[in-house]
Amino acid sequence: AQIIEKERLERELQVAKEIQMSILPETLPEIHGYSFGAMIEPARLVGGDFYDLIPLGEERIGILIGDVTDKGMPAAIFMARSHAFLRAEANRCLPPGETLVTVNQHLMEMNRRGLFVTVFYGILDGERATFHYARAGHELPVLIDAAGEKHILPMKPGQPLGIMPYPFLDENSINLSTGDSLILYTDGVTDAQDPGGNMFSEDGLLEASTFKPGMNAQEMCNQIFQKISEFRLDEPPVDDVTLVTVNKH
After folding, report:
1. Looking at the DSSP assignment, which residues form a beta bridge with residue 120?
2. Torsion angles phi and psi, residue 124, rounded to 5
3. Residue 234's pLDDT is what?
4. Summary count for the chain: helices (H), strands (E)
5. 141/208 Cα distance (integer angstroms)
6. pLDDT value, residue 160
7. What pLDDT digit, counting tens, does each position of 82-93 carry?
8. pLDDT digits (tens, 9 = 90+) for 70-116
9. What angle do CA 16, 21, 24 make, to 5 degrees?
10. Dihedral-angle region of residue 137 (phi above 0 means left; psi in -120 to 50 means alpha; beta otherwise)
11. Furthest-apart CA pair in the chain: how many Å?
12. Any idea what DSSP says for residue 212?
């Protein structure tokens, strides 16, 4: 009876994983002059990380990445709810800060377990080469310029969604020049550990983020994942690992 119950639970988790993965975009959008890349590796069958790239018309793309506190099924359910709210509000084409404020209100109304989610959401205007974003307690993106210089974007206070009625949000805008690359990630990237317990860290990410001539955003994403895998050796992931990359050709 225990074996049968275990197999039933495993099947249900596998179905939950398939449903969760179906939430993520099957293909990445295309706009002239840009390439996009994305990868995700849950630490368990189901996880709390998510990303999305949402076509908003007129050469505009909503770029989203988030990380729910906790792991396993509770995080997966809260992830699905957060993603649904974020995508619905993004499609209203409001500024990123307004989008996150409204999503936070939705989450506050139905969050009895006390979970929260860090979110980075921005709107890329391909024609104007601008990226306006709002950050709710999430990791700061990395910008690599055409000369190969790596910069952590400026930081202002930012707090997660789902725990405070009026969280601080870090809002900013940057201009993208030809050859620039943008890397968004969750803390599972920098917290990845080798067998000795050493962390991949922000320095490891910066070292792995090398854009070579002719490389597109997905190839850069793959390269960073490969570096993380080589660093971990046989160690399983301690947290979900998610990356989103953007390159302006």
Report:
1. 65, 135
2. -90, 120
3. 83
4. 6, 10
5. 14
6. 97
7. 999 999 999 999
8. 777 888 889 999 999 999 999 999 999 999 999 999 999 988 788 99
9. 140
10. left
11. 63
12. P
Give the residue carrying structure tokens 């630490």: 43
Smallest Cα–Cα separation from 43: which of 231, 240, 191?
240
Considering only CA atoms, which of 152, 133, 130 is closest in space to residue 141?
152
Q: What amino acid occupies position 135?
A: R
Beta strand residue intervals within the chain, DSSP E: 34-41, 49-57, 60-68, 117-125, 130-136, 142-144, 150-152, 170-175, 181-185, 241-248
Residue 104 corresponds to which tokens in the numbers above? 């936070």
Q: How far is CA 43 from CA 58, 71, 80, 203, in A?
A: 37, 8, 17, 22
The mean pLDDT value for 65-73 works out to 88
Using the predicted structure, report yes or no on whether residue 6 has a pLDDT greater than 90.
no
Residue type, 98: E
Place of tokens 């002719």: 214
